[in-house]
Design goal:
This protein is of the alpha+beta class and about 70 residues long. The chain is built from 2 helices and 2 strands. The longest helix is centred in the N-terminal third of the chain and has 15 residues.
């Protein structure tokens, strides 16, 4: 999936699609504004089937996609 145009308008439905398929998800996310935004947390805050795990700032060593 391209990250171009990826924002709360696309991220929230993307997570909802995961929930329809997998029922329970834990998302390990970098600190992109969309990923850990108040809007995203509000959309799923009461949902016990989704857990947001936001990586600390400046921690590319924890993000496998940044390992080159």
């Amino acid at each position: 999936m391209s990250t171009r145009g990826f924002n709360n308008k696309t991220f929230i439905p993307y997570v909802r699609a995961f929930l329809r398929r997998f029922k329970r998800v834990a998302l390990i996310l970098d600190r992109a504004p969309t990923h850990c935004s108040k809007l995203a947390r509000a959309a799923f805050g009461r949902n016990r089937n989704v857990e947001f795990i936001c990586l600390p700032k400046a921690s590319p060593y924890l993000n496998a996609s940044e390992q080159c």
